Amino acid sequence: MKSIRDSCRLLSVIKFQRIPEHLIKRMSLCELNKPEEPSQEDCCQNGCNPCVFDIYQNQLKLWEENRGHTNSQRYDLLSQTRFKPFVLKDIIPLTANTNLYTFQAAAVQDSNDTVGVLPFKAGQYVALRFENASKEPAFETRDYTIVTDKDEQVNGSFQVLIKLYNPSRTSEYIKTLQEGSITYWRGPLGDFEYKPNKYRHVLMICMGTGIAPMYAIIKEILNNESDESVIKMMFGCRNPSEIIFREQLCRLSAHWNFNYICYLSEDYSPKDKKYSETFVHGKISEEHIQSCLKLSLENLQVLICGTKKFNNEVLSYLITNGVPKANIYMF
Description:
25% of the residues lie in helices and 26% in strands. By secondary structure, it is α/β, with parallel strands linked by helices. It holds the Pfam family Oxidored-like.
């Protein structure tokens, strides 16, 4: 069995290579889902807590406890302990320096009884590994939130939002990618878990690419007809041209339980408005947040995502205005 697993792993790194059907039939799903021991290259050497080796030990313990007691008809294309190869399939420009990237598992295969899936939840992220020959260790990692809805998975693919900065080693690497490029990802990571109808109101406060987890969670809520949580999003941008997912947000606002306000730090013209957008001039302030806190504080969840400074300021505003810290989550 060990040689079969090794063969499967070798095949998984070959571009567009499918796992041979005769091997799949000889391998149990239990073995396919056994956690893979990370190598030193899978560790970012940044002192993470938990470390990838801690994650592996915890997952291995759970796997051993549940071995032989699972009826799962799937195996995971992503791994929390090893970087897996994914092919860049598409790049969609959203703003002048922000794109939507689609990546597909390099070893996608179809079978009647075995289905490869991406086991992520709304709000979780994946880690990208890329080579940096001028630094020790020789690899760097960068985290990106998955914006794909679970129902939007197509042939083992996921989408991430990436803003290109200058100068930036990560951005320089991203700029070299083109359709067909092989990239390496680990995940899903992150402990956020949305629970339908747990809160009557969900207030989202974000800026820039901080909209990524919010966008995924919004779709999760709106696609669930039994979820009656009401969403309000405060979205900070510099100007109308930098409103990420602008058309998508407009379409989503047709739902009865979602609306959003864009707070623009730069001047804009009324002609810049599209659809039924609501613009407020200025950065998101404590006064703005107070105006949105006319909801029941006991039945309110607040989600925050932006820069570290932005997150800390918003957190301070919320606590000062009586929002329980247990009801606040910062990405």
